[in-house]
Amino acid sequence: MTSPQFRNKAIDSPIRPWVSSPYSLVTWWDMERFSAAQFYEFGTRISAGRRQFEAMDKEEEESVAKWRKSTGCKLLKEVKKQCELIDLKVSAMCIGEFFQKLRGTVSAKQLLQVLSDTENTIRREMSVVNFYHMSSKEFDFYQKTELFGAKVNAKFPSIHYDTVEAGNCFAMGRSTACVFHLMRIMEVGTQKFGRRLGVKFPADKNWQNILDESNKAIKALPKGPKAVALSQAAAHLYTVKLAWRNQVMHPHDRYSLDEARDLIGHVKSFMKALAAI
To answer: Is there a single domain that holds both residue 270 and residue 151?
Structure first.
């Protein structure tokens, strides 16, 4: 699936969707439309050439000469153009080389062989272009500029990049990379939280130290809405610590997608609570 900002803006043109919209998703529907259009062009033109060659009479040399002067060069030029438009460089090169041969004597058998070779080369070239499928559930996390909400974005502009990348990595199945970006977000969040409490957390960012220092500072505050809000943020921080698995705030282990999903939720809750203070 894809949202409007990632849709191919030139899907009805021969431009490849991944070229007109680089580094973004295009829908299965758009890819099918593009592929079907190109295969139709190749099939129509190459089939037309086959019929012409197969219908050539016994005076082969004269027939080939007539074909070359009438529709032959035009046909091959159009196929070559289609190959160039979708970056089939080897196929276009093969046709270009054949143009050189057309200057001399060429038989119908040679022409048919060129078409067959061109079809095979096109198939081989297209077989090495790969695409990644993303489900609609995964897409819910892809390129989301407000994964943690507009208020978190407004309060903590420095985490925008890592927020988007955390979602992107999760959507692409890169769970440990997702946790890496969440760690960078938590580094910002915990330091902001510490400054709000008047506490400087240790350089090694040990989770238990962070929690101990936070709770100590909160207990020293007078009772009231501020203390309650900070306590709620500290509670979310504790759930992040439990999900993190490591004593030190760095993702040394490998994380599964389920664990990364849980961490996204916990980090989101902490950052939203922090933004509300």
So the answer is: yes
Q: How many CB atoms sit inside 10 A of residue 10's CB? A: 13
Distances (CA, A) of 145 to 6, 149, 189: 14, 9, 18
Same domain, yes or no: 68 and 143 = no
- Is the pTM higher than 0.85? The answer reads no
- One domain, residues 117 and 175: no
- pLDDT tens per residue, the chain (277 residues)? 333 333 333 334 455 666 666 666 767 666 666 665 565 566 566 666 666 666 555 455 566 666 666 666 777 787 788 788 777 888 888 888 877 776 667 676 777 777 778 778 877 887 777 777 788 888 899 999 999 999 999 999 999 999 999 999 999 999 999 999 999 999 999 989 988 888 887 766 688 888 888 989 998 888 888 889 999 999 999 999 888 877 777 767 889 999 999 999 999 999 999 999 8
Rounded-to-integer distance, Cα 167 and Cα 10, Å: 27
